[in-house]
Amino acid sequence: MNKVFGFIAREFREILPAMIYFMIAFHIVALSHALSLERYGIEAKTSVAATIMALIVAKAILVADALPIINRFPDRPLIWNVLWKTMIYGLVAFAFRYLEEWIPRIGDADGLGAANQALLAEVVWTHFWAVQILLLATIVGYACTSELERVLGPGTLHRYFFGGKRAAGS
To answer: CA angle, corner 17, sides to 47 and 150, nearest 5?
Structure first.
């Protein structure tokens, strides 16, 4: 039983930074999305949806980080891995956003293809892409931060931002 709790605690500590980052980012995106849709009388997703999406994307990013292909350019300047991770994480975010719009339409449509056709016809694409751009901007920030953490060493950024034992070189 202690091994199970230890595993859960370790997983939670691993996911916590990404979860907090994306929870803040997704709530900002949800708020700006709600504000832009309010004018048209369209009700936006709740903060619960933003929180659930943050949890899912944070876990998906941690799974992607475990793949050997994620650090494809470890010996090149940081921008290489930042752009690579941004592309991968951006594709994950796009897939999640598309599924978020598609899944609710499945119950109302006659099959998966009809649900996709309904999505293509009903979604306000300017809003979809505006939100996607905001997400991509937050993903760039996350990729930059995670690459700095990788290069500087685990815990270094945390010590610089929140204190504790001084980081090496300070």
So the answer is: 145
pLDDT tier for residue 132 given thresholds of 50, 70 and 90: confident
User: Is 170 contained in some domain?
Assistant: no
Structural domain includes residue 118: yes
Would you say residue 21 lies in a domain?
A: yes
H and E: helices and strands count for the chain? 6, 0
- Answer yes or no: is 74 within a domain: no
From 51, 62, 58, select the one nearest 23 (Cα to Cα). Answer: 51
Alpha-helix runs per DSSP H in 107-155: 112-122, 125-152
Sequence letter at residue 170: S
Q: What is the predicted pLDDT for the residue at 167?
A: 46
**Total domains, the chain:** 1
